[in-house]
Amino acid sequence: MTARRGALSMTDEEKSVEQLIKELAEMRRQIAELKSAEEHLMYMSVHDALTGLPNRMLFNDRLHMELAHAERNHQMLAVMFLDLDRFKLVNDTLGHAMGDRLLKRVADRLKSCVRKSDTVARMGGDEFCFLLPEIAQPEDAVKIAKKILKALKKPWRLGGQEFYITPSIGIAVYPNDGQDADTLMKNADTAMYRAKEQGNNYQLYTAEMSDQNMERLTSEIALRRALERQEFVIHYQPQINTETGQIIGMEALVRWEHPERGTVFPAEFIPYAEETGLIVPIGEWVLRTACAQNKAWQDAGFPPLRVTVNLSARQFQQKDLVETVDRILKETGLDPRWLELEITETVAMQDVEHTISTLRELRDLGVRIAIDDFGTGYSSFNYLKYFPNHTLKIDKSFVRDVTEGREDAAITKAIIALAQNLNLKVIAEGVETEEQLAFLKRQQCNEIQGYLFSRPLPAEEFTRMLEKKIALKDR
Ligand code: C2E
Ligand code: MG
Ligand code: MG
Fold it and tell me: What's the pTM value of the predicted model, to 2 decimals?
């Protein structure tokens, strides 16, 4: 009995020990699993999923570490920015899947060009960054840049096609070109854009790039970059019919959501964009986005509204303007009658012949035309009757003082009368007060736009306003 009990209890003990061991093993396995999952997550959070290269976060981390090291040991290090020229074209013509395959292979070739102690990271899109610690002189970085160029020069075969890609590389060296990570990155980036502009392939940063006369270029760089990184957004300002109180349309107004400076208003960057010609692609983006958004609102079941888009002088001079507008309307599926294009009075008067013929072609497409900031330029009223426009927009500088300044009231009255005589619609912008509204209503100006009703709003907020069916009486 005793022996049996003993044997039994041994077995129990054995069993429980065995059980314990099993449980421990299971626990250990689970911990290991968790650990590896955690490690995997950690790895994923600092690596680029497509190429497996370190991402921006890891790159910045290493850069800070290496900078501290370089400072302690009085060494040099280089940061190189690399951007593939015309990569967008590959994506557009071969598709994103092919684009991704190409990026992976580019990443492999890039890795093979550097030492183990160097870092190659993918910063996003077709941008790569190199961290080269412990270089003896800037020329060492140049050597690596040349090696990279050579490696990428060999033709690429993808999907049965052979093609070439060229990169642009910008180099900044610590401590000469910057003492901290941000400055080095910014200067390498500036050098890279310089390389791109001059078709140089690679470029060492030089102090003169930051000189006064380079400010324009940096703005151009910044603007171009903003376009690529999709930092522009459109805010929509409602336009109201004062008789019905309902929203009848909206003006698309561009803003730049600058990663450091926050919202930048058009007055600050449109002049640069105009000067550099970048207004053309920016304006095209605005037009496409505004048309697509308007179509989306219609598709969502809201009553159709007209969207008004500003055209700059440079855009208005483009030979292919009419084609571009036509193409964008087709691409977005927006019925032309829901698009209104605005040119300022000053632009309209620059070359009257051109204005008349271009406006005619645009009208023939079925879009509406408005003359913006009317009253501020030097229009000959005589020409106005030849302009095939639909709307006059009274500039906000007149509206501001209609209730105080007698002259502004008189001008505003005159513009409204002129519009009525020419059978044009008239809209007052910059309406901020009830008094201004009352004055305009008395003059039978029955369309307004201004802070009284609403400031320009991001698309989502505008949607909410449409959902709530907010009208003038609610304000
Ligand atoms: P704009 O076309 O005359 O646009 C009206 C401006 O008046 C907008 O300024 C708008 O925010 C502002 N505004 C509206 N209601 C009121 C109000 O009640 N009071 C006051 N004080 N201001 C009001 P914003 O958005 O800063 O745009 C300034 C100018 O920049 C525009 O004047 C237009 O000429 C230009 N712009 C804006 N977006 C674009 C664009 O996409 N392309 C081009 N080429 N130019 C644009
Ligand atoms: Mg406007
Ligand atoms: Mg205006």
Answer: 0.67
